[in-house]
Amino acid sequence: MDLPGRLGNLTPEQEEKMFQLWKLLLQVSGVMDDESTAEASDAPVPLEARGTSSTTESGKPKKKRLGIFKKKDKKDKKDNPQPAASEKTAALDGVKDDDPDDKYGQNKQFRDTLANRSPESIRESIWTMVKMDHPDQLVLRFLRARKWDVQKALVMLISTMKWRQDVKVDEDIMARGEEWALLEERNATDENSKKFARDFLAQMRLGKSFCRGVDKAGRPISVIRVRLHKQGEQSNESLERYTIYLIETARMMLVQPVDTACVIFDMTGFSMANMDYTPLKFMIQCFEANYPESLGVVLVHKAPWIFQGIWKVIRGWLDPVVASKVNFTNNFKEMAEFVPAAKVSKDLEGEDEWTYEYVEPIIGENEKMKDTTTRDKLLEARDALYEEYEQKTLEWIQEKDTAKRAAIKSERNSIAQKLREGYWVLDPYVRARSYYDRVGVLKPGGAVNHYASEKPSVNGTAAAASSTPAVAEPNATTTTTADDVD
Fold first, then answer.
1. What's the mean pLDDT in 236-251?
2. What SS3 class is residue 469?
3. What is the CATH number of domain 202-348?
4. Of 272, 278, 250, nearest to 263 (Cα)?
5. d(CA 415, CA 481)
6. Nearest residue to 342 via CA among 451, 224, 257, 211
7. Where does the record place the region Disordered (predicted)?
8. pTM of the full predicted structure?
9. What whole-number distance in Å separates Cα of residue 263 and Cα of residue 261?
10. Which helix (H) or strand (E) holds 300?
11. Most buried by CB count within 10 Å: which residue of 19, 259, 314, 369?
12. How far apart (Å, rounded) are the C-alpha atoms in residues 283 and 277?
């Protein structure tokens, strides 16, 4: 059975909270205006009635969405500085910059985003963040993280969206990936650029962190070998890029209904030379502020006595919910309570003989990303599905009849399935291949083999990467078994 607070296992009260958050999301993204929200009994605004602002290359009209700020442009405020300060909505009520419970300053990020971004731009960014996830599952992550407080969940979601754009998760970190770093390391004329790329790859070559297998709950396991980190060996910038890259790659390994991960901190051989508070704080912030409800369990394995004082400091930084997920294991028997005994690695005194060995990027493995024509056609098809999902959500929000609402929810789920399948068709055109693609953990179409250890043929992989098939529709037949962490 699905865990509480997930699709298929929501209480009526929880479903109502999801209902309310979708209202606000449709407001801030310009799909639903204040009047529609206030009068939930009104009929939804048909897509065709929202006006047109231009046409796509195929001649299909783009829909104009006039949202809570009533802007008619698609540019951010920095490009079209028309003040909207007088136009307040329920979405802003009670959001204070000086809130003592706002640990990461997300209230200010939220207010700044609504003041400086057009609704159309916010909508586009929200959908980019969804990727292969069911949109409702993504929304539910933020609701659970904020204990079903709709206002706080909205603030967190929009702030996460802004953070992703600020650090360029999709257009830089995941789009450039490992092959870019390899080419920079080899060819960059600027020494700082060369070192940045070298630092990024050095951590993968060391195997400082890697994903291998699943725990007893089916959660993918990420192992962090703390002894391999030495403070000052890599810049903080490269450490942050590495951290985000690994989290984003790991989210592709979640297989429904599993939606959280198991993280093992292997403290074997730990000394104070390995302790580095700055990247640890960044990792904590990522999981608490930007990847909510992503951690299922954290195992700290074979921590030496000197770690006791350090843990008291770290525990004070953690949200109590996150801290409650931390378990200390000291031997194979205790580790085997969480991980199948036969799958515990030999590094952790287990039976799995597999050892991490980094497979270098293959020049040309991202050739499909140059095919912008195919990419744009796939993105256009996805945008049509986004609009369908929004329309069904509007109908769902405004429908009072229980039976009809259930039918609309079923239709929304069907569209979500098409979005998930369509993402995996799009994936090789927008995301650089990773180590896990090269060794066969991540399979085409979104399938995952958590125990793969293939050694790819250079010619075979390069050939596969350079081929450009005909454009597949987003609902093309693909094997889709991965779900999003966010």
1. 97
2. coil
3. 3.40.525.10
4. 250
5. 16
6. 451
7. 33-116, 459-486
8. 0.85
9. 6
10. strand 295-301
11. 259
12. 10
Which 8-state DSSP code applies to residue 174?
Answer: I
Measured CA to CA, the distance from residue 463 to residue 461 in angstroms comes to 5
Task: Report which secondary-structure segment, H or E, holds 250.
Answer: helix 236-250
Each residue of 104-117: pLDDT tens digit?
Answer: 999 999 999 999 99
Helical (H) or strand (E) element with 260: none
For the chain, what are the domain ranges? Answer: 10-27+91-167, 202-348, 367-431
Cβ 482 vs Cβ 447: under 8 Å:
yes
41-93 pLDDT per residue, tens: 344 444 334 333 333 333 344 444 433 333 334 445 444 443 333 333 555 66
* pLDDT tens digits for range 351-398: 899 999 999 999 999 999 999 999 999 999 999 999 999 999 999 989
Pairing of strands 326-329, 209-214: unpaired
Helices (H), 355-401: 372-398
Closest by CA position to 430, among listed 74, 124, 60, 172: 172
Q: Cα-Cα-Cα-Cα dihedral of 114, 118, 119, 120, to 10°?
A: -150
In the numeric block, which tokens belong to residue 291?
């990847």
CA distances from 339 to 133, 290, 343 (A): 26, 27, 7
Cα separation, 207 vs 357, whole angstroms: 7
Closest CA relative to residue 456, chosen from 474, 427, 433: 433
The DSSP code for 255 is E
Edge-to-edge strand order for the sheet containing 209-214? 209-214, 220-225, 261-266, 295-301, 326-329
How many Å apart are CA 165 and CA 250, to the nearest integer? Answer: 19
As a whole number of angstroms, the distance between CA 210 and CA 223 comes to: 5
Q: If DSSP codes are grouped into helix, strand and coil, which group holds residue 278?
A: helix
- Cβ–Cβ < 8 Å for 62, 52: yes
Q: What string of DSSP letters covers 396-437?
A: HHH---HHHHHHHHHHHHHHHHHHHHHHHHHHHHHS---HHH
- Taking the C-alpha atoms of residue 135 and residue 187, their distance in angstroms, rounded to an integer, is 41
Is 233 in a helix, a strand, or coil?
coil
Helix 191-206 and helix 175-187, axial crossing angle in degrees, nearest 10: 120
Q: Tell me the two tokens of residue 12.
A: 């009526």
